[in-house]
Amino acid sequence: MQLRFLIAALAALTLSTAALADAGHSHGDDRAYGEPGDPKKPARTIQITMRESDGKMVFIPNKIDIRKGEQVKFAIRNNGELDHEIVLATLDENLKHAVEMAKNPDMEHDDPNAKRLAPKKTGEIVWKFTKAGEFDFSCLIPGHREAGMFGKIVVK
Q1: Cβ neighbours around 84 below 10 Å, total
Q2: How far is Cα 69 from Cα 85, in angstroms, rounded to an integer?
Q3: In 3-state terms, what secondary structure has residue 96?
Q4: Cα 84 to chain centroid, rounded
């Protein structure tokens, strides 16, 4: 009987921990800023560099124009000396998620709209922008967005 209780308690703890680690990440398929792209389909490649410069942290470029319905492959490179990440979302979602990241700075993203990179590493995100609007991309590692590491995506 005690073993069953212990197993049930561990299962509940594991499930609640997974939910907390995913705070702000679960979106289902209906995101305001689009959906994961299909890597087998054609996509426009946009290079994004992350780095520190003159006491600031930056994305280059920090403004990107995209056509509604367009699939984009973001080729991301961390040219900095620190870990950085890029999270695609609405500004409101990223600001809320930044609060969660402040509480758990080592949180790693396993989402199609986010990528964390160590210095001198590369990665990619394939994304299809299905709705028009202005969206955000940010590094949500505590202090990085505040140091200037954010940008705007304009979908027309």
Answers
A1: 28
A2: 25
A3: helix
A4: 10
CA distance 20 to 46: 32
Residues belonging to the chain: 156
Q: Which residues have C-beta within 8 Å of that of residue 118, sequence separation ≥ 6?
A: 78, 83
How high is the pLDDT of residue 30?
Answer: 64
The residue ranking higher by pLDDT, 72 or 23, is 72
CB distance 136 to 150 below 8 Å: yes
Nearest alpha-carbon partner for 37 in 63, 74, 62, 67? 74
Q: How confident is the model at residue 141, as a pLDDT?
A: 94
Burial of 79 from C-beta contacts in 10 A (0-12 / 13-18 / 19+): middle
